[in-house]
Amino acid sequence: MRRSVLIFIIINVLVIAFLTNRVWILITLLFADGMSDAISRGELPAADAESSDTRPQLIPKIIHQTYINESVPPVWQEAQRSCIELHKGDYEYKFWTDAKSREFIAAEYPWFLDTFDGYPYPIQRADAIRYFALATYGGIYIDLDNGCNRRLDPLLSYPAWVRRTIPTGISNDAMGSVPQHPFFLRVIRSLEKYNRSWILPYITIMGSTGPLFLSVIWRRYSREGLNQGDGRVRILFPDEYQDKPWGFFLHNLGNSWHGKDVKLIFWMARHWIALTITGFLTAGVAFFVLYWVYYRFLVAGSSKGGSIRLRFPFWRRTSTKDYELLDRDDRHEV
Ligand SMILES: *[C@@H]1O[C@H](CO)[C@@H](O)[C@H](O)[C@H]1NC(C)=O
User: Fold this and answer.
1) Distance from residue 303's CA to the centre of ligand 1 (Å)
2) Where would you find the membrane-spanning parts of this chain (predicted)?
3) Ligand 1 centroid, distance to 71 Cα (angstroms)
4) Could you tell me what percentage of the chain is helix, strand and coil, using 3-state DSSP and rounding each to the nearest 5?
5) CATH of 34-259, one of 1.25.40, 3.90.470, 3.90.550, 1.10.3470
6) Rounded to the nearest whole angstrom, what is the distance from the C-alpha of residue 73 to the centroid of ligand 1?
7) 1: confidence class by pLDDT, cuts 50, 70, 90
8) 71 CB under 6 A from ligand 1?
9) pTM: predicted TM-score of the whole model, two decimal places
10) Among 84, 94, 98, 59, which Cα is nearest to 147's?
11) What's the pLDDT tens digit per position in 127-161?
12) Would you say the CB of residue 72 lies under 6 angstroms from ligand 1?
């Protein structure tokens, strides 16, 4: 094989390997069901029988919630009240307003303050503060639109847990952990690195601080063998989560911070065949453009004064003379 073609193919293989490597965690995410870490119904006491649970409680009795300021909109007040009422007396309630969150980061995590202040979307700060709150104090974080259906005591018996989302990944809308749990320490230490813009606000938020970010860290953490012993992160499945009499949470559909991007994502999901074909066509065009650039500047560029004709690697068996000429040029060039 001619050396120029070989180099071209090697470069392409490297590019493809690089791209595959970058999205590999996302691909594994599609197959990670978290079943082996599931919190099964058998180990949980029935609703209203929480006091029969004799397992040690590891997670401190703290409930964390966040909002811009103290004036919670009426649509979420009932959900908020349901959690406070059920846990009155023995749980501490920490409410993180924007002002309190910033004060806390500035005091406890000054190395993160620039990133925190620099987030373009307020929801990113709301995402980030919940990880820092859990890593610092431990407790259970609950989104303001998720009401409580029963007491959360049984969920205190795991060093850390998150909620599984269907079809893939985990969510950050309800999570629990002991203080300084290695998973949440890993999460807060990863935020800076994942603070990137993906052009679309929805994807930027998901990938930098939201559920996609959390899912990617969860996969990496598991693949490194850290998801075991005290470092294990248990998974709450939808069946134990909501819509069942024994589920822990009530979901209030008042939350709709994502707009056009979500519509775009759903549109893409509906037209995935056309989009896939377009993707392959684009890749094909890119391949030939790359080859043309490569040929034009690296191979043909050195044939002094000679006419430059575009040649593709697969149909160049025109004459042996061409081979010799190109072979010689290659040696000069490389
Ligand atoms: C709280 O934030 C909302 C939304 O930005 C705003 O409309 C409201 O005036 C704020 N309330 C107070 C007390 O600052």
Assistant:
1) 70
2) 6-32, 199-218, 272-294
3) 6
4) 55, 10, 30
5) 3.90.550
6) 9
7) low
8) yes
9) 0.76
10) 84
11) 999 999 999 999 999 999 899 999 999 999 999 99
12) no
pLDDT of residue 254: 43
pLDDT higher than threshold 60 for residue 299 = yes
Q: Which of the listed residues 66, 67, 69 should we mutate to test ligand 1's pocket, taking the one with most ligand atoms within 8 A of CB?
A: 69
Picking from 17-31, 91-105, 209-223, 306-320, which range would have the lowest pLDDT averaged per residue?
306-320
For residue 69 and ligand 1, the question of a CB distance below 6 A is answered with yes
Q: Whose CA is nearest to atom 1 of ligand 1?
A: 69
**CB 68 near ligand 1, within 6 Å:** yes
For residue 125, is pLDDT > 90? Answer: yes
Is the CA virtual torsion 103, 108, 109, 111 positive or negative? positive
Extract the tokens encoding 292: 């043309």
Cα→Cα distances 32→17, 190, 219, 232, Å: 22, 21, 8, 15
Q: How far is the CA of 69 from the centre of ligand 1 (A)?
A: 6
